[in-house]
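Second opinion, please. Pick holes in both lines of this record:
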Amino acid sequence: MSQKSNKQKAASDNRRVDEEMPEIIDDVEEAVEENNAENETDELSQVDALSKELDETKAQLEKEKKEYLFLMAEFDNFRKRTLKEKSEIIRNASENAMKGLLPIIDDFERGIEANANATDPDAIKEGMELIYNKLVKYLSQNGVKPIESTGVEFNPDVHEAIAMVPVEDPDAKGKVIDTLTKGYTINDDKVLRHAKVAVGQ
């Protein structure tokens, strides 16, 4: 093929491209616009979905906040009610304890009146022992019991050593030799008062 034919063919191709170019550009622009429109629609859908999710989260948070405030109010009411009931139990318990002592006080008063004119010391002693036994029985019924001390091993949980006494018997070392003030427990384990004792050394 000659050089002239090549030039003519190239010129023809250029003309065809020039003629088709506007159509190609239009097609490209149209495709770009469609793509942009689709992207915009997708973005709007995502924004709508996120906005809906945010609204649902806000509603859930508000609901949980109300439930939390309700629970806090309920707990505060429960705490106040419990404190009131506890104070009433303590007050009633001490009231019952004092009420149980009143008959023993009555016995003491009758004993004092009887002793004013009594001449027999044995009768006075017997009366005192009766009242004492009644008081000990009442304390025992309410869980108050004396702590065992004289002759047992010294126990710092229930004994208070106020004197150390030298002893010749090796078995008596570390043991309670004498009880100066009796100790008491309540409900078998709580010490109401430690026993004041002398311990052998």
About this structure: The chain has a mean pLDDT of 84. The radius of gyration is 51 Å. The longest strand covers residues 159-165.
